[in-house]
Amino acid sequence: MFNEVKKSMQWGEDTLTLETGKVARQADGSVIATLGETSVMANVTFAKEPKPGQDFFPLTVHYQEKYYAAGKVPGGFFKREARPTEKETLTARLIDRPIRPLFVPGFKNEVLVMCTVLSHDLVNDPDMVAMIAASAALTISGAPFMGPIAGCRVGYEDGEYILNPDVEDMHDLRNNPDQRLDLVVAGTKDAVMMVESEAYELTEDEMLGAVTFAHEQIQPVIDLIIGLAEEAAKEPFDFTPPDYSELYEAVKGLGEDKMRSAYAILDKQERQAAVGAAKEAVLEGLTEEQQEDPNLGSALKKLEAAVLRGDVVKSGKRIDGRSLDEVRPIVSETGILPRTHGSALFTRGETQGLVVTTLGTGDDEQIIDALHGNFRSNFLLHYNFPPYSVGEAGRVGPPGRREIGHGKLAWRALQAVLPAATDFPYTIRVVSEITESNGSSSMASVCGGSLSMMDAGVPLKSAVAGVAMGLVLEDDGDYAVLTDILGDEDHLGDMDFKVAGTEAGITSLQMDIKVAGITPEIMKKALAQAKEGRLHILGEMSKALTEAGDFSVHAPRIETMTVPQDKIREVIGSGGKVIREIVETSGAKVDINDEGIIKIASPNNESIQKAYDMIHSIVAEPEEGAIYKGKVVKIVDFGAFVNFFGKRDGLVHVSQIENRRLNHPSDVLKEGQEVWVKLLGFDDRGKVRLSMKVVDQETGEEAKKEEKADD
Question: What pairing do the DSSP bridges indicate for beta strands 688-691 and 648-653?
């Protein structure tokens, strides 16, 4: 009934297995990949005909984490998986980016790749397993896919690269000083296709070494996929790339001069208008049959690319007149919004980000429900890209994959320099509003985010800047690496290579390419050129701010204190009664964790001090011989009970009230009266013994003993 094919190999510390032929047999390609006890099923289907008039390649990648994979039930009211989580969205992008360039040019049939996590051993991250499964499913599907690819994760500890480190080792790297890298690399047999990383000030050579190490480690996985395909692959889909050479020659003849003149215009809006006019002129000159040709869009794009790319490689000059390694003019401003905790406006050429920092308390931390367990994050970065930033009128909706991906890239770049939570106990939220865009708004978010946090008083270890690099690679091998690319250079070039970091090293690296890979030589040159650009941008940023500014008067102040763990219950009280009373009385927010660390937050220092004193009186022990101010709570025949230390009461015996004999304590005291008392000690049963008569009731100081008169 089943025509099963299974291939296995030892990969790192676990066994990697690929199997097909038993599950989802109606899909064009279906593979279950298992590493250790983490299993992901990838299913590929593709349309056998393109939609009429479609002028783009409709590839869709979905990655789904099922809670049952880790033996969990989803939270919320509906108890089922709903909209994709940030992790699922980012993983779908990780898979999409290296496979998209490997489809045969001209293939515009709809392709759907669905990856489903079936089992998670809490050791091996399913994202890399999903990438391998997707590659294998595409390779056996018969689709015109020029793979296979494979991917892996690399760590860096004690100068050694680590293949596929455990999930736990990659979690919360900021608080793990030994682990300095979380790098994902995908590639083919011959070249690297995609890089994504979170790093802790690694040098360019260390990063290049990690990429090289990863490319070596994926080679046996590619061989395993090829072995599976040799036994299980379907017949290749009958697809011949369309030949539109005659149409291209007609388009080129009508529009090359006009397109070249359009790309000579420096202003983006004027240039786009001129490019649009050039295209209209081409259309007017074509026959009706040529105008209806489905390859017309491809021919026009090819003309644009030829004009832009040829001039760059031949003359070393770019469409805005810059040299290859030149960064556009930069203006940095901070403190531009009066009521926010921190703000910055970062402008680089025609790209601009308004970045705002808000400081919150522990209550504002994000709770993330992941397959490997719940955890909290005290650093949030949200990126928004409205249509007006590129001069367009478009639909505004919830954040898409692009916004989530760009925000995560900036998050990775900045979180490497954040202070430890024990030193700066705040939740930090950074929001980047892209107000203008023409090239690498994610790197503008990094620069603006660094300035904004320093403006808010966050003691960053160092300023961070980012720069986007591009590549034009010609068929004859000639190439040009471009610093600080424009939108058109990204759109029509062969690489988008983003590097962020400090003066000391790289904190984030992301690479996407549109050709079959780049060589180590090109990557080394791009990293070196990116370092020069990054240092230049850091110098420009320093003109606005060089260190953390003053704390905003509108930001909450947070004080931390630590109490013994056996006292936590007393601070919280039955049903939270005590801690609610502290919050209501002091006006401060109070947060306590299982380790006994308490954060007290308020814009008002008096509220913080009041809450601190109330908590201290609960957890501290009264000192024998110390003087306290108390309140009479009960009067009895033999003395008065005084509340003097938090909830603690003690007895002032009638003989200890005054230096004279009293008939009854009520002769001098009444309930609610404030008095000064000295703690004399504890009796055999642990009862508190207090004295009033040894304390001056007016000053609260210990009364001086009267000296005996001379005989």
Answer: parallel
pTM of the model: 0.84
| R_g (Cα) of the chain, nearest Å | 34
Q: Which of 140, 186, 142 has its CA nearest to residue 7?
A: 140
- Compute the half-sphere exposure of residue 74: CA atoms within 13 Å on the CB side of its CA: 13
State the sign of the Cα–Cα–Cα–Cα dihedral 120, 126, 130, 136. negative
Cross-strand bridge partners of residue 161: 156
Distance separating alpha carbons of residues 116 and 125, to the nearest angstrom: 13
Print burial letters for 620-657: b (CB count within 10 Å at least 16), e (below 16).
eebeeeebbebebeebeeebbbbebbbebbbbbebebb
Tell me how far apart the alpha carbons of residues 91 and 87 are, in angstroms, rounded to a whole number. Answer: 6
Q: Are 703 and 694 in contact (CB under 8 A)?
A: yes
Q: What are 106-137's pLDDT values in tens digits?
A: 899 999 999 999 999 999 999 999 999 999 99
The structure tokens listed for 654 are 């009638």
Are the CB atoms for 423 and 175 separated by under 8 Å? no
> Residue 627 has which token pair?
């003087």
Contact 343, 334 (CB under 8 A): yes
Residue 473 contacts residue 168 (beta carbons within 8 Å): no
Structure tokens at 339: 């009521």
Residue length, the chain? Answer: 711
Q: What is the pLDDT of residue 706?
A: 52
How far, in Å, CA of 215 to CA of 210, rounded? 9
CB 306 within 8 A of CB 260: no
Average pLDDT value for the chain: 90
**Tokens at residue 577, please?**
């009664």
